[in-house]
Amino acid sequence: MAERAPDVIMAEYLLNGGKMLAKTCQVCGAPLFEYKGETKCVVCEERKKSPQASSDLTEVQKTMQKEMEIQPVRGAVSDRIQEELTITILTLCQRVREEPEPERCLALVECLSTSIEALQRIRHP
After folding, report:
1. What pLDDT, in 10s, does the model give residues 19-61?
2. Per-residue DSSP letters for 21-74?
3. For residue 43, with 0-12 CB atoms within 10 Å meaning exposed, 13-18 middle and 19 or more buried, which class applies?
4. What are phi and psi of 90, to 5 degrees?
5. Is the distance from CB of 43 to CB of 53 less than 8 angstroms?
């Protein structure tokens, strides 16, 4: 089974009533979701289901820990989050332009709106 892209995973949760939060996962950098009363990283959760992804996740965790030990936490993490949100926003814009189904387009626009709001909060707390 091929691993699904994070934006596909997040869009599915949004379509199923999940709420994207302005907080991000410390492991993979994806936005956290509130879903069925739980706050979780839907990307990491899905990746844990795959044996290969699980070992990849462990490597990502190790890398993130090393980066956080080397750099000051606040500045480095904030910069990384801003960079990832910017990439996510650009990716979502592209997907909105290409999406033929109105319901999926709406879900993508909601993701886009939440991502922009999160980026603004980080830049101007």
Report:
1. 999 888 888 888 999 999 999 999 888 888 765 544 555 565 5
2. EEEE-TTT-PEEEEETTEEE-HHHHHHHTSHHHHHHHHHHHHHHHHHHHHS-HH
3. buried
4. -65, -40
5. no
pTM of the model as a whole? 0.43
Q: In which element (H, E) is residue 103 found? A: helix 102-123
For residues 21-31, one letter each, b for 16 or more C-beta atoms within 10 angstroms of the residue's C-beta and e for the rest, the string is eeebbebbbbb
Paired residues of 35 in beta bridges: 38
Q: Is 99 helix (H, G, I), strand (E, B) or coil?
A: coil
d(CA 120, CA 89): 12
End-to-end CA distance of the chain: 41
**Structural domain boundaries in the chain:** 6-123
